[in-house]
Amino acid sequence: MTNLIRSNFQDHPFHLVSPSPWPLFTSISLLNLATSAALSMHNFNNGYILTILSLILVISSMSFWFRDVISEGTFLGNHTLAVQKGLNIGIILFIVSEALFFLAIFWAFFHSAMAPSVELGGQWPPLGIEPVNPFELPLLNTVILLSSGATITYGHHSLIHGDRKGALYGTIATVLLAIIFTVFQGIEYNVSSFTISDGAFGTCFFFGTGFHGFHVIIGTIFLSVALWRVFDYHLTDNHHVGLEGGILYWHFVDVVWLFLYIAVYYWGS
Amino acid sequence: MFPQRQLLRAAPRFSAQLRAQAQRRLASTETENSFVRERRHVKEHAKATAELWRKISLYAVPPAMILAGINAYNLWNEHWEHWSHLPPLEERVEYPYQNIRTRNFPWGDGDKTLFWNEKVNYHNKDKAT
Fold this sequence. Notes:
heterodimer; A: mainly alpha; Four Helix Bundle (Hemerythrin (Met), subunit A); 2 domains; 8 helices; 0% strand; B: mainly alpha; 2 helices
């Protein structure tokens, strides 16, 4: 339905959503996830089976919901300019809440690292712990993440200009760099001489880098969906909210890494 | 009197119809207004920026990655060379804040962290629950 036809019977540009089960499904599965995760962390019998089931439920509800949003935006024409603006504000608010989440993680780290407790010998890193060399894999990973910022800008601006090939090449390169980053983080985790159970140092390190890695994986999925939608001609030069959301999210993950690199890897070692 | 009034009433309608014909625009006709102008400007601007970031992606990214890769490779080898001269894991001091176990992990044998590596992580069997 084009906007011209729409304006014949709708006096406003907003999307009046049709009834959908996904908000309720998502809410219930999120409640399940939080409850079963808390229970299993307190040694509730078979709690982790419930946690994994809830996680599958959350991911499925989200996938079905986003599938519907893609249909509404791409094929039903419900995403008018006003609706796109609203979606953008939603993405920005989501990223702000994520920033505050990472603020809490950094708070935990600085709380432990800036005034190390007597139990840690009053020093950071504590004796007997060999931190990761920040100029080894972490530096390479910094270069990879910054490079992915360049390639995604190439892809995005090519799409705006109407250059399909450039949009595809730029986004493919970004997704590949994202996967390489995750592989290197996996290698680093595997050869790390300290673990998550090595006191405040191990806990804060894996708390911060682990949640960052988790966000990198989500960002990779976000950009992969956008890549598929460029490939499938869903996105146009002036209407590509999904890709822009993914790019914004990716830059956010990139910035969090820079803070992690400076604070946890470099200063904290 | 009557035709006069009718004429008076009809006049604005006729003029409106005339005006509509003159002002008629097809949806496909690109006319110059601020919205169209801005969108065209964005599109033209994107040509130059896409080219700039294409060049950065092609000519700055690979060398930077190769340099950082060589550096990481050298430091990696240095690290393992240094590691080979350290005493075996069981002879190193284990401070009270290391290898903390308060309850079993929900995976594996319950005693190993998620990214456990036998070569670099000391398995303290006394702490196994």
